[in-house]
Design goal:
heterodimer; A: 111 residues; mainly beta; four-stranded antiparallel sheet; 9 strands; B: 117 residues; seven-stranded mixed sheet; globular
């Protein structure tokens, strides 16, 4: 079973920041938090990952709470092309460990 | 960035035929690749882990004789759906990781949509 819990759907106005929450209360010390998204009829796209520090790249920011039991993916200026299903995943880095997908959050960007 | 390519992207076949799907890592070597299946409006379901030079590891409930996996090189894994039937129609997706070199993410192909008539 997936080790994360996400809301099934969210709406966000175009141009605003989209904040997607994820709960991973059973995360282990050596497990990373990964975020992927899947646009309709495509394969999942890697977005960002982190261990305990906040991370930022050209796509998004990842905020991880101090106790690491939850995190938030932030898309700073959402566009219509960000409409997708977003998956939060925990896995042990450095191993070819399989990824088990949960149901994710379906993000709708509203014009 | 790392790229994973799948071929074909779309295939329609008659019931009873076998279909082969290729998954290639284009700019890195992947000792392990993964195969997923996705039905409409559902999440990805892991089918099997493909290991270069050894037998694949199948998830519970996945028929190994139905879904043949061959990982003959560090850049290519194939999934063959044998004697396909309409219930095998689905979106098949592969992924690959650059391996145990630190925190490397898995990268996914764009999927193969299989329709069995």
């Amino acid at each position: 079973d997936a080790k994360t819990t996400q809301p099934p759907s969210m709406d966000c106005a175009e141009g605003r920041a989209a904040n997607l929450p994820c709960n991973h209360s059973t995360i282990s010390g050596n497990e990373y938090v990964y975020w992927y998204r899947q646009i309709h009829s495509q394969g999942p796209q890697y977005i960002i990952h982190g261990l305990k520090n906040n991370e930022t790249n050209e796509m998004a920011s990842l905020i991880i709470t101090e106790d690491r039991k939850s995190s938030t993916l932030i898309l700073p200026h959402a566009t219509l092309r960000d409409t997708a299903v977003y998956y939060c995943i925990v896995r042990v880095a450095g191993r070819d460990d399989k990824i088990i997908f949960g149901k994710g959050t379906r993000l709708h960007i509203l014009p | 960035g790392a790229v994973v390519s799948q071929h074909p992207s779309w295939v329609i076949c008659k019931s009873g035929t076998s279909v082969k799907i290729e998954c290639r890592s284009l700019d890195f070597q992947a000792t392990t690749m993964f195969w997923y299946r996705q039905f409409p409006k559902q999440s990805l379901m892991l089918m099997a882990t493909s290991n270069e030079g050894s037998k694949a590891t199948y998830e519970q409930g996945v028929e190994k004789d139905k879904f043949l996996i061959n990982h003959a090189s560090l850049t290519l894994s194939t999934l063959t759906v044998t004697s396909a039937h309409p219930e095998d129609s689905s979106f098949y997706i592969c992924s690959a990781s650059q391996g145990a070199r630190g925190n490397q993410p898995q990268h996914f192909g764009d999927g193969t949509r299989l329709s069995i008539l």
